[in-house]
Specification:
The complex is a heterodimer of chains A (about 300) and B (about 250).
Chain A: H1 24-45, H2 52-59, H3 62-93, H4 98-113, H5 116-124, E1 132-136, E2 143-147, H6 148-151, H7 154-180, H8 183-191, H9 196-226, H10 238-249, H11 252-281, H12 290-307
Antiparallel strand pairs in A: 1-2
Helix pairs in contact in A: 2-11, 3-4, 3-7, 3-9, 3-10, 4-7, 5-7, 7-9, 8-9, 9-11, 10-11
Chain B: E1 5-14, E2 17-27, E3 32-36, H1 43-50, E4 58-63, E5 66-67, E6 70-73, E7 76-79, H2 82-90, E8 92-95, H3 107-117, H4 123-136, H5 152-164, E9 170-174, H6 182-197, E10 201-205, H7 209-215, E11 218-223, E12 226-231, H8 233-238, H9 243-252
Classes of the chains: A mainly alpha (about 300), B alpha/beta (about 250).
Chain lengths: ~300, ~250
């Protein structure tokens, strides 16, 4: 008994191969799924009723392009205004003042609790409730007013409806983001002499963004597609545009495909933007940054250089 | 000599629980006061009342002659504005148990944030001073690292530099080494010793008895919301007179 090499593997002349386990069920499943997907694509691609030539033709139609622009403008305006309003609502909701937090709570309760389409039609028909919109100083005769129908166009109704609705949902996201930031961050900022407002803007909100951005991207994508609801009040968006076209040529399915393709394109571009935005707001939350590594290497080299 | 920090009959309750039951303390300029005591004795709460992170329910705190968070008119202390309170806090540095460096900012950005936004310094001046402070705490080569890339001891040294950058009149340390791995405690205590030697007025809530004995000019022992014993560290730590102090020291030494 002299050798410690009791493992017979060590004495093999050639290295042993590792054979991974075969996943037969997975292979069968994958083949089945591929087959179904192929059949589905085939039934759509070779379907005469799809009228692919019509789809191609209207994909680059000017009216459709106008619709895309309206959809994008509406989404951006409502998302930006909605998020600003949402931040105010979230800060109110977290306020120690009971009136502010209750008002914010009631707002969120109302706008989340009623259907978006109802809100949209309501704003469009605001004239039925208030025929005139005006401002005036109470107890005096000084006032000015205009007809509601002149002010509240389909576009204005849509902006109002989507902004107010989006703010309700976004405020909950912003609130969750603010609450995700450790209270120590706030105390540290206050202890260096920052005001509550500076602390919120400089320290808390930038870190809250990491939690806020992913669900916000979801909201933005949702909103982009929800703007198709303005077709109900003839708002001139992408869906309205294709509806106007198929009302004349009856090519319903091909034009819905045109609209869907454009929605997919815009959402895909937005998703790429989301990826880069998430990387930006995630700054400091990884254990790696090129700058820090470079500095460390430089200092190690400097130390070695000093020793020589 | 006028005290740098004066705590006058300080009371603090959280709901029905009274945590501070009448604290009186005077801290001389340039002195180092270590605050010892069992957990739950009110040490941290007292420290947090000094820069008004906790609002006292009774009594008052004066720093450099000014009531913190209040202004006195006759016999009434009226609460001051948030802006005025922020200005007072800028002169009172604080170092926290959990470091609490701004997670989205590099070490350098953490240090210059206050000088830029609160003191209104120029970026280049603030950066020069911050780099000098990083040098002082031995972390010049980690200026561009984020807190998550630093060890606990390094984070706490940056946190001390961040507090020093505001050129405070007093520094409060709330258990600065309690969250650290044992082998990292020394580097932080070394920096604190250097700050003490520079003449800074310091109040340190700590469990480091050796540090208290070696560095502090005064030791305060707290239990159940009261200061039960205070005085020269050699006396209080070697020959404690109060049974609570004797009991505590026999456990930790």
């Amino acid at each position: 008994m002299t050798a410690l090499t009791t493992d017979p593997l060590a004495s093999e002349s050639s290295p042993l191969k590792l054979a991974p386990r075969r996943h037969y069920a997975q292979v069968v499943g994958a083949v089945a799924v591929l087959l179904l997907a192929f059949l589905l694509i085939q039934s759509l691609a070779l379907n005469k009723n799809m009228q692919w030539s019509t789809v191609w033709k209207y994909l680059w139609n000017g009216q459709v392009g106008q619709g895309i622009v309206t959809t994008l403008v509406l989404t951006v305006i409502c998302m930006v205004m909605g998020t600003i309003l949402a931040t105010v609502l979230a800060v109110m909701r977290l306020s120690k003042n009971k009136v502010l937090s209750t008002v914010s709570f009631a707002y969120i309760w109302f706008f989340r609790g009623t259907p978006l389409l109802v809100q949209l039609i309501f704003w469009y028909n605001l004239a039925a409730l208030f025929p005139l919109l005006g401002i005036g100083i109470p107890l005096t005769n000084i006032s000015a007013s205009v007809s509601t129908n002149v002010v509240i166009t389909a576009f204005v109704a849509a902006v109002l409806g989507f902004t107010l609705n989006e703010a309700a949902y976004m405020s909950e996201i912003v609130r969750a983001g603010i609450q995700s930031v450790n209270v120590g961050q706030r105390e540290a900022a206050l202890s260096t002499g920052m005001t509550e407002a500076q602390c919120m803007v400089r320290i808390v909100l930038p870190q809250a963004m990491r939690v806020i951005v992913p669900p916000t991207a979801n909201q933005a994508i949702n909103l982009l597609k929800a703007t198709s609801l303005v077709a109900f009040i003839s708002g001139g968006d992408l869906l309205s545009a294709v509806q106007d076209i198929y009302a004349v040529n009856f090519a319903v399915i091909p034009l819905l495909v045109v609209a869907s393709i454009w929605y997919l394109v815009v959402v895909s571009v937005a998703s790429v933007g989301q990826h880069y935005l998430e990387r930006r707001v995630g700054k400091g939350f990884t254990h790696f940054s090129e700058d820090a590594v470079r500095d460390q290497i430089a200092s190690i080299k400097a130390a070695q250089g000093g020793n020589e | 000599m006028k005290p740098m920090v004066e705590i006058i009959d300080l009371h603090k309750s959280f709901g029905k629980v009274e945590v501070l039951k009448g604290i009186n303390l005077q801290v001389k300029p340039g002195s180092v006061t270590s605050i010892l005591g069992p957990s739950g004795s009110g040490k941290s709460t007292m420290l947090r009342c000094i820069n008004h992170l906790e609002q006292p329910t009774g009594g008052a705190v004066k720093v450099n002659g000014d009531y913190v968070g209040y202004t006195r008119k006759g016999d009434v202390l009226s609460e001051i504005s948030g802006k005025a309170l922020a200005k007072q806090r800028a002169g009172i540095g604080m170092v926290f148990q959990r470091f609490d460096l701004y997670a989205h900012k590099t070490a350098l950005e953490n240090i210059i944030e206050g000088p830029l936004r609160v003191l209104g310094q120029s970026r280049s001046a603030a950066t020069d001073e911050a780099m000098a402070l990083l040098e002082r705490v031995g972390l010049r080569n980690r200026a561009r690292a984020y807190p998550a890339q630093l060890s606990g001891g390094q984070q706490q040294r940056v946190a001390i530099a961040r507090a020093l950058a505001m050129k405070p009149k007093v520094m409060l340390f709330d258990e600065p080494t309690s969250a650290l791995d044992p082998e990292l405690v020394g580097e932080v205590l070394a920096v604190m010793k250097e700050v003490a030697a520079s003449g800074m007025t310091m109040l340190v809530v700590t469990h480091e008895i050796a540090f208290a004995r070696e560095v502090s000019s005064e030791v305060v022992f707290m239990a159940d919301g009261y200061i039960v014993e205070q005085g020269d560290p050699n006396l209080v730590l070697r020959k404690p007179s109060h049974p609570r102090t004797q009991d505590f020291l026999s456990r930790v030494l």
